Amino acid sequence: MKKLRNIKPGQRKRERREKMAALESQAAAFLDHTRECCLCKKEFVRTKETVTTWQVMVREDTVRLTCPSCWELVQAEVEKRT
Questions:
Q1: CA separation for the pair 43, 50 (Å, rounded)
Q2: Taking the model in full, what pTM does it have?
Q3: Element housing 62 (H / E)
Q4: Are 38 and 25 in contact (CB under 8 A)?
Q5: Of 34, 41, 23, which Cα lies nearest the Cα of 63?
Q6: 64 phi/psi in degrees, rounded to 5
Q7: Which of 6, 27, 65, 74 has the greatest number of C-beta atoms within 10 Å?
Q8: By the 8 A CB rule, do 1 and 33 touch?
């Protein structure tokens, strides 16, 4: 009888565990991020408005917050370079 699966039985569980571990480490990085804009050092006060307007970037276990005014400058610079 021919097997229909191409993936070994334990491989899916292992992949799922690895992805969950990566997600947990990223979620933990959000808990200890800085409380200010990475460009202008404006303080991040957690309100409904700031949570929806500020940009969050996660790269290699570093979390960077960017306020809306600085984010516009970043976007303009990126568009200028492309």
A1: 10
A2: 0.58
A3: strand 62-66
A4: no
A5: 34
A6: -120, 130
A7: 65
A8: no
